[in-house]
Amino acid sequence: MEVNEQKRFETSASYLKKPGRLTITSKRLYWSPNNGEKQPIVNILHSAPSKFFVGKEKVAQEPKFKISTGGSDYTFSLSGWDRIQKIQEELTTVKGRSAAPSPVAPRSAAASPAHQRSSAPSPASGSSSPALRNGPQKVTNKTGASLRNSDKHKLCMQLLLRDKNLSEQHRTLVLKERCVTEDEFWELRQDLLRDHELQMKQKKGRSSVIPNIRPITEEGGETKINITPQLVQEIFDEYPRVKIAYEQNVGDNKPLGHKEFWKRYVQSRFNDRNRTNGSSVVNDDLFEKCWLETEEDINQEKEHRDHGRKRIKISNLRDLSATKEDHMEIELEKDITMRSGHGKILSLIRRSNRHGEKILEASSSKTRISKEKAKQNNQEHQNEDYMPYITIDDLNDEKPENAIRLEIHDQREYFASQKLEQGRDVEMTDSQNSPIDILNEFKTDFVDWKPNLTVSLISDKYARKATKKCNELIKTKQHYAREAIPNLENFPSPIEKEVHLLHLLGNEYLRHFWASWNSKDKTEKNKKMIEKLRGALTRINKIKKMSQDEEALDSSQSSQNTDTRVNELEWSKAITLAEQMLKPLRDAIEIALTRGRSHN
Amino acid sequence: MKVDEDANLLVLIIDTNPIVWRKSNFSLKEALRHILVFINAHLALKHDNDVAIIASHVGVSKFLYPIPMTHENSDKTIFPNMYQKFRVIDEKVIANMSALFEDVDTPNNYPDKASSMMAGALSMALCYINRITKADEIGHVKSRILIISVSPDSPYQYISIMNCIFSAQKLCIPIDVCKVYGSDTPVFLQQASHITGGKYLKLEMPQGLLQFLMIAFLPDRYNKKYLCLPGEERVDFGAACFCHKKIIDVGYVCSVCLSSILNLICDLFSVYQNVMILFLNHL
After folding, report:
1. What positions belong to coiled-coil segments (chain B) (predicted)?
2. Which residues from chain B sit within 8 angstroms of residue A436, using beta carbons?
3. Which end of chain B has the least Cβ crowding within 10 Å, N or C?
4. Which among A406, A428, A459 has CB closest to B19?
């Protein structure tokens, strides 16, 4: 036993038909026979790679397990299956500590499903020994991180499958052009991942469709009916009588088999009672009984509810002498469908209502709580709470508001620059006149002023200039409206692809650049982005030099290109258009580069 | 609804800041003469056309027409050669304008003499239009607002002006702006005309004011659809720093009032709850 080694588990086990003692410590597993030998015969270190085999509980006669390591196998027989479980747990925990990259003890296919509970090392299983506290913590972090990484990877894959645009971006940026690494790509799209994760985590409630058996017509004219276990469960939930019938009639010693039961169900009128072709149905005693009983149930439910209502305490605030005339304002048709006790046939509306009520109750916790409360109220006959009905809001004291008071020092300064305004005011008054002088001047000017509108107000020169200016403005407006919109019908595809690619690249680099701007630990990344931005800029500038022949030679679809060749004029027009398209991107990159330069 | 039945209401907001008018080389009197002729032209287009005039003064804004006359100095003689409606309106406008200038103390005590009370005038215009529209049962009064502005934007009135602009947009009232004199681009008024579907026009020579008004601002709402009128289309939507009025690319946003600022250390802003970093790529 070494200094740091601690015994974790000990049990009696036999190896090679000899009784002995099996011990698991923090460092190894060893077995020594009972005849008192000090040295253990079997010594397996946890750090050595080993495999653990367990026989199936139901199949194997005896509880035993096998460890194979380094080419040799050791089989131990134990007294009970619970011991084996304990050993498994111990082994996995200890192995998880000692070997970081393989936290899970590899399991063989022979392990029974009952043992799969302890397959993943729970990081929560704390270590008892203080000496090893740092070790396991590091490992658990790693295992936690590796778990998170694999989850994250799964999320990324799912997200890429769902979103076509994103997958295209990913393909172009990460795989083809190798502009950014995978991690960097996802670093900026954390919110997408988070949203997706939340969406996946949402728990779906019970399906709201009334369980209905739908036949599928196959090619040969036969109809095939799929009865899935989920459908079976839904039918049992909806019609408890069918469940009782199933339990009574299907089973080991019972008359019907599983398939036969469902065959009869499908053929019976219970299933087809809403379908009008009466010829194909067969009267089936079993399901007739089910049907009658279901109807009785429903009617009893209604009665029980109504009956229950009679016991509800009538509020003292209710006006018992109210007659029909007090409610004359509402002019609705009288409802004749929802009357209880009228015949045994449950109409479709009532069936749907019942079904809907069940589903809502199943998913909502409020109705349960309110029902429990109602029961309590009924039972305890509590006094009614009259206060909400008689308190008037105006009579209550005003509650202090939870508002935060803004401590604005000077409201007038909120939007204006004080210095600027002062400067302006000084400027306004000129050197000679103070404002009061100007005001007085205007006052005297306007007293008894009668404008003479009969003389010509505007000289010829100014009128012509004004008209000319207006015409110019109109012209530019028309130009922008009509001719500035480019015609993109015959835009050559190589240029289009290049422009598209440059946009994608440029935007991605810009995003990374600004994201790592001003953050202390990402200066390296920032510098790298600057380099990449410069590269993108040169690439943008190269577009001018794209010529058609080069493109034809480069692309592998040269045969196709001969069909789509455009004449030189159109090509150069397209190039200028492309430059215009890329102008905003170019400006943004230049701004980023100047900022980067000034920062460094 | 036939177009013939439309009655057009033009609400004219005249910026009468004396200090700014003094600076420009075009006198307010001249401008008023041009404006009066323009008003007469508008009234002459159709019998039902109506007009309302509001003066936006330093620290105060007042209706010039229609209000009942307070003093009895009006000339009661009837000029037989002049269309009565024109005469009435002209006289009232002049009289009320001089009454406005009589009061020297209120503008003098107002601290910010460089700008006029545009927000107040806009609100009054919108209220008047609302009243007329509600009173009009048949529903054929089509109203619009024309602002003749000389003074620069007052940043104190930013929120009020924006509120007025949004209400005008809701009510589908176009706001046209004619900038007679002014060195800075009035961002608020430009945006006002853009949002509400009006025209913004900056005059290089104010002496041609009447011609510009006749060409660009005389057609009413119905006719505008069929005419191509001059107006500056390009509006500068760049976010401006609230303290320095510079267009900024990267800045900070206050989460309380949503104002964008250049630096956190700008000493004017003493209210910070949370600050977000806002990235703008200047297009």
Report:
1. none
2. 104, 108
3. N
4. A428
Query: Does one domain contain both B197 and B253?
Result: no
Interface contacts A/B by beta carbons within 8 Å: 156
Confidence class for position A427, pLDDT limits 50, 70, 90: very low
Name the pLDDT band for A58 (thresholds 50, 70, 90): low
Identify the residue whose tokens are 């799929």.
A226
- Same domain? For B276 and B217 the reply is no
Cβ(A264)–Cβ(A286) below 8 Å = yes
Residues of B in contact with A414 (CB under 8 A): 257, 268
ipTM of the prediction: 0.82
CATH number (domain holding residue B133): 3.40.50.410
- Classify B29 as helix, strand or coil: helix
Within 8 A by CB and 6+ apart from A277, the residues are none
Of A424, A425, A477, the CB nearest to B228: A477
Q: Do B261 and B170 share a structural domain?
A: no
Choose the mutation target among B102, B104, B241 for the interface with A, i.e. most A CBs under 10 Å. B104
pTM as predicted: 0.54
Q: How many Cα atoms occupy the beta-carbon half-sphere of A150 within 13 Å?
A: 5
First CA to last CA distance, chain A: 61
Asked whether the predicted pLDDT for residue A426 surpasses 60, the reply is: no
- Inter-chain touch B23–A591, beta carbons under 8 Å: no
CB contact under 8 A, B90 and A451: yes
Q: What is the mean pLDDT of chain B?
A: 82
Query: What is the rounded average pLDDT for all residues in chain A?
Result: 71
A471–B230 C-beta distance less than 8 A:
yes
Q: For residue A94, what are its two tokens?
A: 């200890």
Say whether A425 and B114 touch across the interface (CB within 8 A).
Answer: yes
Between the alpha carbon of residue A203 and those of residues A181, A207, A564, the distances in Å are: 34, 12, 53
Minimum-distance CB partner of B230 among A413, A470, A584: A470
Task: Please judge whether A416 and B155 are an interchain contact, meaning their C-beta atoms are less than 8 angstroms apart.
Answer: yes
* Burial category of A465 from C-beta neighbours within 10 Å (exposed 0-12, middle 13-18, buried 19 and up): middle
Q: For residues A185 and A189, what is the distance between their CA atoms, to the nearest angstrom? A: 7
Average pLDDT over residues A439-454: 84
Q: Give CA–CA dist A88/A94, Å, rounded.
A: 10
Give me the sign of the Cα torsion angle B133, B135, B136, B138: positive
Residues B55 and B126 in one domain: yes
Torsion of CA A461, A465, A471, A472, to 10 degrees: 150
Q: What whole-number distance in Å separates Cα of residue A290 and Cα of residue A298?
A: 12
Residues in B closer than 8 angstroms to A471, CB to CB, are 230
Structural domain containing residue B274: 239-281
Q: Which two tokens stand for residue A275?
A: 């379908």
For residues B136 and B1, is the Cβ–Cβ distance under 8 A? no
A25 and A45 Cβ atoms separated by less than 8 Å: no
Number of domains in chain B: 2
Contacts (Cβ under 8 Å, ≥6 apart) of B233: A477, A480
Check if the beta carbon of residue B90 is closer than 8 Å to that of residue B98.
no
Contact A339, A306 (CB under 8 A): no
